[in-house]
Design brief:
Elements: E1 5-8, E2 11-20, E3 24-33, E4 39-41, H1 49-59, E5 67-69, H2 75-78, H3 81-87, E6 92-95, H4 97-103, E7 114-116, E8 122-124, E9 129-133, E10 145-148, E11 153-155, H5 176-190, H6 199-205, H7 207-212, E12 216-218, H8 229-238, H9 250-256
Parallel strand pairs: 4-5, 5-6, 6-7, 11-12
Antiparallel strand pairs: 1-2, 2-3, 3-4, 8-9, 9-10, 10-11
The protein binds fe (ii) ion (2 copies).
């Protein structure tokens, strides 16, 4: 984990990253909307659970955490969910029903603490109203994001993520070329179906986000990119015009294996 920082208004980033051999590093962010009814968005990597919880509780007392909003069921988002639920008994869990079903294949979640939401609904935290949205690209059918009218921030789950040569906080610390390739690689690898989509179709998937007109897109796998919302949306449409992503084959995997930690 890296030290938390403020992205906009009362929205904090709890930043981490994972090595992505062959691609660089992938940011892995959780977020805290810290008002009178704090909302944790995603729960970090299980591999650094103690560190994640220490970072989280440095920002908010466990008894004060009101909500856990889970964008989807993937490991890098739900990693410490059970530990956070356990430590913050007042917190309710908000997520999509499909993601809940998938997590329930492995975990016993406290269903009486769960609220399910769908894209298009409002999520009233008791301190603000957040709009639940469907990010334009996603890798789980249970994916939901959020738009916060108070700060103008949209939280987009996996969408708009990027591989980086090294972890940085702000897009200005990445070269244009590295950002272009890291963005295209991640968004094609994580959402391979974009190669089947015509640009106007993906453009339509961006309609709701464009209508909301966020001042900042915060991806679970991105860096701060103030003033880059339009550019990022244009780049997202462009990835459908690129060749389908092909994952490393056996020879490439063997070349990467040491880097992946297998001696
Ligand atoms: Fe995902
Ligand atoms: Fe993810």
């Amino acid at each position: 984990m890296e030290p938390p920082y403020r992205a906009a208004g009362d929205i904090h980033v709890l930043p981490s990253s994972e090595e992505a051999p062959g691609f660089g590093v992938l940011p892995v962010n959780a977020f805290l909307i810290d008002d009178d009814r704090p909302v944790l968005v995603d729960t970090g990597l299980a591999t650094e659970g103690d560190d994640f919880l220490a970072t989280l509780w440095s920002l908010v007392e466990p008894d004060r955490l009101a909500w856990i909003f889970l964008t989807h069921d993937d490991r890098d988002h739900a990693g410490n969910l059970l530990r956070v639920l356990d430590a913050a008994p007042q917190a309710r869990l908000v997520m999509n029903y499909v993601a809940l079903s998938k997590l329930s294949e492995e975990w016993s979640l406290p269903l009486d603490r769960v609220s399910v939401v769908n894209p298009g609904q409002q999520f009233d935290t008791g301190a603000r109203r957040l709009t639940v949205l469907r990010p334009p690209v996603f890798d789980s059918p249970g994916t939901v994001g959020l738009y916060d009218p108070a700060t103008g921030v949209a939280l987009t789950a996996d969408a708009f993520g990027t591989y980086l040569p090294e972890l940085v906080q702000d897009v200005s610390d990445v070269s244009k070329g590295d950002l272009h390739s890291g963005f295209a690689e991640f968004n094609r690898l994580n959402h391979p179906w974009v190669s089947l989509v015509e640009p106007p179709t993906l453009d339509r998937a961006l309609y709701e986000l464009r209508r909301l007109d966020p001042s900042l897109l915060l991806s679970s796998h991105g860096v701060l990119a103030h003033g880059k919302t339009t550019t990022l949306m244009t780049s997202m449409v462009e990835i459908c015009t690129m060749e389908a992503f092909v994952a490393p084959d056996q020879a490439a995997f063997e070349a990467l294996r040491d880097e992946m930690g297998d001696e």
